[in-house]
Write a structure and sequence with these properties.
HTH_CenpB_DNA-bd_dom; about 500 residues; two-stranded antiparallel ribbon; 3 domains; mainly alpha; single chain; Arc Repressor Mutant, subunit A; four-stranded mixed sheet
């Protein structure tokens, strides 16, 4: 079939809405069959045919047809299929075009629909897939963003509810207001845009934003010592006192949560430390939600401008502070900060900020975070993004599991995420089925042919205790951390002997 068909006739140039109005006008007696075509600019014989059809069957609707050609599925069936695709994408199991074509064939064959699909390869054609996407513009092809099974499972109702319970407790007991809630986070920057290696250290502080400073570390990663130095600066910045305490929110990095000196200093200065639940910072941390992405884009832009202004040179550690300082100044604004706290539901406090669809990925395992002694095996669930060709142009790449293709997703969604494929569900047509109550498909709907994936792998016991959301400055947490550090030190001393 021609990919870009140019219409050569003027047939059926009217809309179904206009035809419906004209039919209603004739049936109600407002106009005659001669007046209505002139008023609504419709072909008279076509209008008369639909009027007769409406008189014979009051429930009939105007449906444009193109002779012997018709869609395989009805409008309701296609709408149900599109809804199913969007639901699967929200659960992090987005469809490729090839999987969509396989599913379409299964739906047509097992529901007795007349179809022209290829029965040898058991797949709908590329033309049908493209036409389906055009009929549903809310769907589009997106390259999935890499995510891990731990992050998909970590953001669940139990974890979020526990965090907001502690947050409300801190706000109410200490009469905290919005200007006394802070969030800190760390990020890696590079000397080359889009490069994933981290820098070793800053050698100069020239060009940093006002009030900025630099700390050196051989590994390039934040450590307990570096975070302690930053925390002392934060105390000066926040003017925290026991009479007017402030709240500092951060993720569960060991440099934050296993730092006794920071906890003691926070208790002394009136700073309440609240840790996010594990694997939830991408939705609960204001800096991750609103600030880090713009900062990264501004920094990459500064690096590109510097390279254009200095041809033949490369960015070194000596230029990092200047480039980062300019990017930081461009990224920081009050609107971004307020939006970050608002979108995460931290301030104004809103426990219902997340809808049911936000928790759909966690329903694959449905394991509450309270079961800290168990953790599912997520090692195989980590997916890395790999550039791939469009599956419509190169279907061979779809057979290679190491190159995940684009996924069918919603046009309005900001991100599309990907987990391992579940194409094997289409290969077992004789599996036991349970038909849902309502469906536009007469026999088997999409949820039956390709069920929503559920974890079947047995969980295993982990060796270390899993992190959790907690108020670090409370006595129970400090006591537990002190005992854990003492046990670790005893083991190290015993190993030295």
């Amino acid at each position: 079939m021609v990919r870009k068909y140019v219409r050569k006739t003027v047939m059926q140039q009217w809309s179904t809405e206009t035809m419906e109005q004209a039919v209603d006008a004739v049936i109600s007696g407002i106009m005659s069959c001669r007046q209505a075509p002139i008023q609504f600019q419709l072909p008279q014989t076509t209008l008369e045919r639909y009027v007769k059809k409406r008189k014979d069957d009051p429930n009939s609707v105007v449906d444009k047809t193109a002779g012997k050609y018709h869609c395989v599925f009805t409008k309701d069936q296609e709408l149900e299929l599109a809804t199913y695709l969007k639901d699967m994408q929200k659960r992090l199991f987005g469809f490729t075009m090839k999987e969509l074509r396989r599913l379409a064939y299964q739906l047509a064959a097992r529901n007795g629909c007349e179809h022209p699909f290829n029965e040898h390869i058991e797949m709908a054609g590329e033309d049908w897939a493209q036409s389906f996407m055009k009929r549903h513009p809310e769907l589009s092809l997106r390259k999935p963003e890499a995510t891990s099974g731990a992050r998909a499972m970590g953001f669940n109702r139990v974890a979020v509810a526990q965090f907001f319970t502690l947050l409300n407790k801190v706000i109410i007991e200490n009469k905290i207001t919005g200007e006394r809630i802070y969030n800190c986070d760390e990020t890696g920057i590079t000397v080359i845009p889009k490069q994933h290696s981290r820098i070793i250290a800053n050698r100069t502080t020239s060009g940093l934003p006002p009030g900025g400073w630099a700390e050196a570390n051989e590994s390039g990663w934040i450590t307990i010592e570096v975070f302690l130095k930053w925390f002392k600066k934060f105390i000066e910045f926040s003017n925290a006192k026991k009479e007017t305490p402030v709240v500092l929110l951060f993720d569960g990095h060991a440099s934050h949560t296993k730092n006794l000196e920071v906890i003691d200093l926070a208790r002394e200065k009136g700073i309440i430390l609240l840790c996010f639940p594990p694997h939830c910072s991408h939705r609960l941390q204001p800096l991750d939600v609103a600030f880090m992405r713009p900062l990264s884009l501004y920094y990459e832009d500064e690096v590109r401008k510097w390279l254009r202004m200095n041809p033949g040179k490369v960015v070194t550690l000596f230029q990092i502070s200047t480039l980062f300082g300019q990017a930081f100044v461009n990224a920081v604004n009050m609107k971004t900060a307020l939006k970050g706290f608002e979108k995460t539901g931290i301030w104004p406090t809103n426990e219902g900020i997340f809808s049911d669809s936000d928790f759909l990925p966690a329903e694959t395992t449905n394991i509450p975070i309270a079961e800290a002694q168990y953790e599912p095996d997520c090692a195989s669930a980590i997916v890395e993004p790999t550039p791939v060709d469009d599956p419509i142009e190169n279907s061979d790449s779809l057979n290679n599991p190491s190159t995940p293709p684009p996924k069918v997703t919603m046009e309005n969604s900001n991100k599309t995420q990907n987990l391992p494929q579940f194409s094997w569900m289409l290969d077992n047509p004789n599996a036991p089925i349970k038909k849902p109550n309502i469906s536009s498909f007469p026999a088997l709907p999409p949820e039956i042919i390709m069920p929503i994936p559920k974890l079947k792998t047995a969980v295993k016991r982990v060796q270390r205790k899993r992190g959790k959301t907690a108020i670090l400055t409370e006595s129970p947490y400090k006591t537990e951390l002190t005992e854990a550090i003492e046990r670790t030190n005893k083991v190290k001393e015993a190993q030295k002997k």
